[in-house]
# Entry
Amino acid sequence: HLVPYYGMENEAKDFLVGNKVELTGAYFNNDKFISSADQDAVVDEAVSAAKFLGKVGSQFIILNGGVAKSQKPEGFSNDDFKQLAKTMNAIGKSVRNYGVFACMHPHVGCMVESPDDVDRLLEYLDISLVGLCVHAAHQVIAGCDAYEIYEKHAELVNYAHIGEIGKENKGALLGEGILDQKRLMKALLDVGYDGWLVIESSKEGVQSRDYALHAKNYIEKELLKP
# Structure
């Protein structure tokens, strides 16, 4: 989604500044993530995105949790996880040249969605080059423990999404769903996390502005209070 704006970095930066918006990061996905033959091409694509992000003052590139499960319904091998880590490590190393940091996002429907998947990838991932982007709603939808990644790997988190899940996996207002938001936040704060909390959630019938204002108030009054 950034590609149409390559070469327009100055205009993009002026637009962001003029509207008092900061682009914290952008999502990067590639269906060749576990192809050794395509590793260089995937890294080059990520570097192109990082060049743009760096020029507009963005700090992070969020790497999707590998390819979709539908691409390999028979399951993923250790070699697949090794190759995913190898590609992500190469991206993490390359994007630093542009002031951008990489983080891997365990994502529902992808080869890395559960706590076990994260542990499997971490056997090969260089954590000095690639951090974690957490969002517990993905684990809820995937039928996994929503808290394990936070409580086991909080020190690796360098970017965080915050959202809420209600009944039947539908969106809900923060603090009014099934997630224990205080437990999730405690895991991050206990290791000194002081990075971004990006609201990535919605509720049917609630306007985006109203949701954002509710979430901001809830975070400041409930989750970050002394």
In short: The two ends are 39 Å apart (CA to CA).
